[in-house]
Amino acid sequence: MSFEFEVIATDGLARAGILHTPHGDIPTPVFAPVGTAGTVKALTPRDLESLDVKLILANTYHLFLRPGDELVRDMGGLHQFMNWQGPLLTDSGGFQVFSLAQINTIDDEGVTFRSHLDGSKQRLDPQRSMAIQQNLGADIIMAFDQCPRPDNRDEVNAAVERTRRWLAQCRAAHPHDDEQALFGIVQGGIFPDLRAKSARYATDMDLKGYAIGGLAVGESKAEMVAALDETLPRLPENRPRYLMGVGEPDDLVEGILRGVDIFDCVIPTRLARHGAAFTHHGRINLRNARFKRDESPIDAQLGNYASQFSRAYLRHLVMSKELLAHYLVSLHNVDFLVRHVANMRRAIIDGQLKAYAAQFLARYMGGESPVE
Amino acid sequence: MSFEFEVIATDGLARAGILHTPHGDIPTPVFAPVGTAGTVKALTPRDLESLDVKLILANTYHLFLRPGDELVRDMGGLHQFMNWQGPLLTDSGGFQVFSLAQINTIDDEGVTFRSHLDGSKQRLDPQRSMAIQQNLGADIIMAFDQCPRPDNRDEVNAAVERTRRWLAQCRAAHPHDDEQALFGIVQGGIFPDLRAKSARYATDMDLKGYAIGGLAVGESKAEMVAALDETLPRLPENRPRYLMGVGEPDDLVEGILRGVDIFDCVIPTRLARHGAAFTHHGRINLRNARFKRDESPIDAQLGNYASQFSRAYLRHLVMSKELLAHYLVSLHNVDFLVRHVANMRRAIIDGQLKAYAAQFLARYMGGESPVE
User: Fold this and answer.
1) Which architecture characterizes domain A5-265 according to CATH?
2) Alpha-carbon distance values, B256 to B246, B247, B253, B273 (Å)
3) Where are the domains of chain A?
4) Is B139 a catalytic residue?
5) Exposed, middle or buried: residue B206 (CB in 10 Å: 0-12, 13-18, 19+)?
6) What is the rounded CA–CA span in Å between residue A135 and residue A138?
7) How many CA atoms lie within 13 A of A54 on its CB side?
8) How far apart are CA B161 and CA A48, in angstroms?
9) Which ipTM was obtained for this model?
10) Chain B contacts of A322, Cβ < 8 Å?
């Protein structure tokens, strides 16, 4: 029953479910931290287990370039290579080709680009993306798509058509979902009719799950929410829905309220490397001088290992560029998002999601209270 | 009975003992990793406990400049600030003033220098060093000494005389060892008569422990061993003997064979940041291409968490400059040295130190065997 998806409770449009995978069950909604190069930056698999992380995303583009997908395959696949026994998801490489590669040229068959590491000429196309993801061996693999700028209609429409053709080619190159489930991706930028068309294209094929791509790439929050409202009702209820690249605490609320099941984002670990931490009263930056002698933990509501350290000490580590700062703040930030999503799952089951969401947003968007 | 030192077994000149401190017993010989800025780089206190680390050294110079010893005091002292409940040792700041400060001028009363952080003019002297170390609150504090180049006789002699006067001033500024024990430091460079004189000066005062300073600063291994042979027999048997800044696995053997009880060194964490790891067959650098597809752990003899990862994966992390490389290799390297010293302690108790030392050195200095 791998990749079966059970919805166990609903609350409005929101759903709580379980996605079965060969490496374990994923309770949804779920937040997946990103392990770009086969490591969630600064954290160990042991740490991630301790935080109840249920899914990790790794980047096909990065692992293809270094250390190479064939090496990972020869070392027993990505699970064994990175020593993570839980579910894994790999993206298709498409997004990074456009955002990271030095030069890229797209044609109807794929993308030619130069590696951001050494400038070498490389090519990715649907077949290649499938072959790489098969070598990596993640439980969930993503169709190779084109993620365009969200607001140029002609470009977005061309991307929607390419993404359709490429999805069919991905399916042909990966015909069976026995060990790895292929998810399709809906593009369409900020254009309602193009979102609708792309959703139709994707759901024309019976896939194990559907993702919403091309968001959190520069559009406004209102535009993102409008695109979700347009797309989500067009996706089948009995399949998981994955909103790619989204992880701001308030965006997680908006997504879950509308029926998203899976999220991923680099934000918890990236912010940590800049000394920024989530709290229930908003984001703080530990560099701020007001934390110099602050003996309280980052957020008294969380009980992870980082909460044994004062903001004063963490600020000292950040100011001193100490590696331990990255570790402890990453641990905290991942915990914050994973618990936030797990709390919403419980609220769905209890039929209390709207109340939770309102309370969370009031505190989170209201900023830090002076007494805390 | 704080700071009482019991010798529980001897084997030749080597001793196994227990040093009692207000934050717990230290079984000796002991290797102390260095937490320069109040953190053993990349590792958590929890990790250090899991490796049976029994003593950590922190640097007075660094903590004085940032975040400031008064801030650390106000946050409850260094134990509470860094969340380490075990024994702590702080150095005097003297060594860093000479090795790190941008400009330094020594006079008979102290040292004026410019901070390596912001160029600000600062001064350290015996009274100030004691006051800072009292604010930090480590269990063992070190007398403010002058650590000269080891081979300029006039300079070394002047340093021996200054170190004597400064020790008396430190004792006056820290008259009681109830909560923090003051250790004196023997200088003398590579000159046997100056080592003897400096040892006499130090042992003229009844201190809780004695350190050998001014070694591992550029002299040859033969010169270091000769200085140890000259100094160690002149230190009282009922007091711990601390060889400062030494941590190469073979040097730990030489020191313990001659009766050293305490060591500290940045080497395990510093090497880790360069991708280098200790093994029982010598040091390896994980950047080496021969580890590309090496599925074995760094050293199959160690069972710490890093041993769950292959050299191939660790090499990938090192090449990708991933933070997890620092963490896992630091964990491994600290474990290697701590166990190496703990193994020697057991060998002393079993009367087998010479055999252990010979076997260890043959393997370690012989380099990596081709079959492993």
Assistant:
1) Alpha-Beta Barrel (3.20)
2) 11, 11, 5, 27
3) 5-265, 272-366
4) no
5) exposed
6) 9
7) 21
8) 55
9) 0.97
10) 37, 39, 41
